[in-house]
Fold this sequence. Notes:
Helices cover 73% and strands 5% of the residues. It has 14 helices and six strands. A hairpin with a 2-residue loop joins strand 2 and strand 3 (153-155).
Amino acid sequence: MLNRFMQSRLRGLMVLALILIILPVFLGNPFHYELVIQMAIIAATVVGLNLLVGFAGQISLGHAGFFGLGAYFTGIATGTYGWSSIPALVVGAIAVGIIAWVVGRPILRLKGHYLSMATLAVGFIIAIILNNERAITGGPDGMPVPAFDLFGWELSTFGRYSLFGVDISGVQAWYILASVVLLLAVWFAQNLIESPIGRALRSVKGSEVAASVVGVDTAKYKSLVFVISAIYASVMGGLYAHFQGFITPAVASFEFSILFITMVVLGGMGSTFGVILGAVVLKLLPQVLADFQELETVMFGLILMLTMIFMPKGLLPTITATVSKRMRKKAGGEA
């Protein structure tokens, strides 16, 4: 029989898949599709970041640097050197993973504020390099990125395609790709969490000293999850570059890093589906608050502040706990 954790994982994944299947019914125009595609790509990125922050307890304030490296590696490889998209994404992920391993080994020895400052510095350094290397990256002006090619298809948001005899638009094709990638990202993360590696990560988060005493190589597992989260960011950065068709150093900016970490905290650290909800909320809020014009930023900050005051564990864990509590009370009352 499937154990309780596996049943929970499958149930969550099936619910997410069902939402992604039904969602196109409510998407009325290409702008809606583009917004949801961005949500899916960024949600997959923060699923990887949540492994580092939510399960291993290691903060990263420069994660957009790896996102930017993946975006620029893919853009340069496909645009300048004529690579296909899949090899560019794979080689880019390997390159970023190696960089993350080299950088992570020394900085993950730090703790608390020192670790935050170190990861912040890594992000700044990457952003500065992307901004200054005009001959390679185009500098502040950015660079164009070719359309994503998949098994002979060139996925352009302006194209038309036939899938199993059904005519679909370019944004619909991108929606399908982004949905599949998000599901794979969640599936991998959920399986990693319940593996021996995931249990080791949770022990590191609980107490590094205690984990070391029982034989967990804390340095090894912290470096490993740092690399995995960086690879997530790299692959999603590459897909983001292809989808946008043009990138600037802003994809590696401090603002992007803060956006990623805020999504994790808002959705619920240690909750895979919670961070997806956090990504959706933070991408939707600016659209909802657009009518407030100059008060948009104030309203945005106020909503986030009130959410963290009254839901300190994050949106999804708080909602789940509240619903479970009410169901138990109802069941107790009926008994």
